[in-house]
Design a protein that fits this description.
The complex is a heterodimer of chains A (about 100) and B (about 400). Chain A has about 100 residues and is mainly alpha-helical. Chain A has helices at about 1-15, 20-40, 50-65, 70-85, 85-95. Chain A has five helices and no strands. Chain A starts with a helix and ends with a helix. With about 400 residues, chain B is mostly helical. In chain B, helix 3 (about 40-65) packs across helix 19 and helix 8 (about 150-155) packs across helix 12. The chains are: A mainly alpha (about 100), B mainly alpha (about 400). At the A-B interface, helix 1, helix 2 and helix 3 of A face helix 5, helix 10, helix 15 and helix 19 of B.
Chain lengths: ~100, ~400
């Protein structure tokens, strides 16, 4: 009886922890990270090397996640940051934030 | 006067040395994912670690033994080898996470990939141990670690809502993903009650030649130092809850965590985060390497002591050298250091009973402790916390692994 109750509890927790909901939350999290990193870079709060690395990581994670199409604009943002092109980064950021 | 200064220094080093990769990673992830809701886990772990640190100091003062040494003598080599082996494996993972954290801090500052920092960072840790004395290592890194107080300052700068913060000290059902919530709770408890902390403290009391006059200062250092230290870990949760949680950022890497101090300090926030992470991890790596080498030497009955010349304790020095080299290899493998940290903290919770329960047995043995044996309250708090944390960790680790596939 106790063992059965434990199995039911484990299955319940596993159901709550897995699946699409988690992947969607992760994709949202990486998109929000990309936006915050770019905003911080534009306001001079973080170094370019960090911003570029963080955006590359965000694009990579988004490509593996629930919305792989969200990876492309973040990858473009990464290229703009790597070039130091603030205008382009601002334009792409506006598009991403919308 | 000398003793008062010693106690003050002990408290300061407990504060500066409290935070490590485990505390930063688990607290940042908890605050970002669940807001203030996991503050209770830090509180629970802190109450337990205060008892354990006080006990380990009292044990060394009264019995003139370190914990590992006494467990071997009391229960025999055969009984000590299993918990010792398990703790050593966990220590290796935790050391890898500390070295990884320091490497990431350097990556944040330089843009050079963290794996490339593995050997230089390991070399620095090894050189400090080889060339430094116990006091230099214990006090120097912990004093530098006071930079982590910036998280507490940030709580006030950000005007964190006191009511919401206070509500986080009462455990309640999570808003989402209960399996991840439990995993983070046990990881926080594992990060707070790291066995290396009280094993190191016990060996340190012997290295510093504490006598019976240190019983009261030991209690004071354990309560005040650990409480203030835990305040910093709680502040990391609060800062992450205020700055990252509203954006929906779930911290999976240190790069994401590095954003948390920007709203409080602007561009200085980025450098303060990197400095806090780097210094806290180097300090913890030093303590962990020493604690592991102490354990190896004490289990096998070798000569040990950080203040001895390397030639006088060759096998002790070889032990931490090998340990640091092995941990550096884990970092070189390139696994996400934050993932290594979170899993090593949860596994720490699983093996806690193996280290803590034999120690508790000794704390109640009048042959070692005379009239200074444990009271029922300290026994109950430690047993209940450690056993529940281990059971929850056993359930939540597989769920975390399979839930993230």
């Amino acid at each position: 009886m106790a063992r059965r109750a434990l199995v039911v509890l484990l299955l319940g927790l596993a159901a709550c922890s897995g699946g699409e909901e988690k992947k969607i939350a992760q994709a949202r999290s990486w998109s929000a990270t990309a936006i915050l990193v770019t905003e911080s870079w534009l306001s001079g709060e973080v170094p370019s090397a960090y911003a570029s690395d963080a955006l590359k990581k965000a694009a990579g994670e988004l490509a593996k996640g629930a919305y792989p199409e969200a990876a492309d604009p973040v990858a473009e943002l990464e290229l703009a940051v790597a070039r130091g092109d603030r205008e382009e980064a601002r334009r792409l950021l506006d598009g991403l934030a919308r | 006067m000398k003793k008062i200064l010693g106690v003050a220094l002990g408290i300061v080093t407990s504060i500066g040395g409290f935070l490590d990769a485990g505390s930063i990673a688990t607290s940042a992830q908890a605050g970002a994912a669940y807001g203030f809701a996991l503050l209770w886990a830090v509180l629970l772990g802190t109450v337990c670690v205060i008892f354990l640190v006080e006990m380990s100091g009292r044990f060394s003062i009264v019995s003139r033994h370190t914990i590992t040494d006494a467990v071997r003598k009391r229960f025999g080599f055969g009984a000590v080898i299993v918990p010792f082996g398990a703790t050593l494996v966990v220590n290796l993972l935790v050391l890898a996470s500390e070295l990884g954290g320091a490497c990431v801090a350097l990556e944040l500052l330089t843009g050079i990939r963290f794996q490339l920092w593995a050997l230089p960072v390991a070399g620095i840790v090894w050189a400090l141990l080889w060339l430094g004395t116990f006091d230099v290592i214990e006090d120097g890194t912990a004093l530098l670690g006071l930079v982590t107080v910036c998280f507490v300052v940030a709580v006030f700068v950000l005007h964190a809502p006191p009511g919401a913060v206070a509500s986080g000290f009462l455990p309640r059902a999570p808003s989402h993903d209960p399996a991840h919530y439990l995993f983070l709770a046990v990881s926080i408890v594992g990060a707070t009650i790291a066995p290396y902390l009280f094993l190191f403290y016990s060996s340190g009391a012997i290295e510093d030649k504490w006598d019976m006059s240190y019983l009261l200062p030991n209690r004071f250092i354990a309560v005040v130092g650990m409480s203030f230290g835990a305040t910093i870990a709680m502040a990391v949760i609060v800062v992450a809850a205020v700055t990252l949680n509203p954006h929906g950022i779930e911290v999976e890497t240190y790069e994401q965590a590095a954003l948390m101090l920007l709203p409080a300090f602007g561009r200085w926030g980025f450098y303060l985060f990197a400095a806090s992470l780097g210094i806290a991890c180097i300090g913890a790596a030093l303590e962990l390497s020493l604690a592991s080498a102490y354990s190896v030497a004490q289990v096998f009955g070798w000569q040990w002591g950080e203040d001895l010349k390397p030639a006088s304790a060759a096998r002790f020095n070889l032990a931490y050298t090998a340990f640091i080299a092995a941990a550096a290899l884990v970092v070189l493998a390139g696994i996400n250091p934050m993932k290594v940290t979170l899993f090593s903290m949860a596994i720490t919770a699983v093996v806690l009973p193996l280290t803590v329960l034999p120690f508790l047995f000794l704390m109640n043995d009048r042959a070692y402790m005379r009239e200074h044996v444990n009271g029922p309250l300290s026994n109950a708090v430690v047993v209940i916390t450690v056993v529940i944390a281990a059971l929850v960790a056993l359930v939540s680790i597989p769920l975390e692994i399979f839930g993230s596939q």
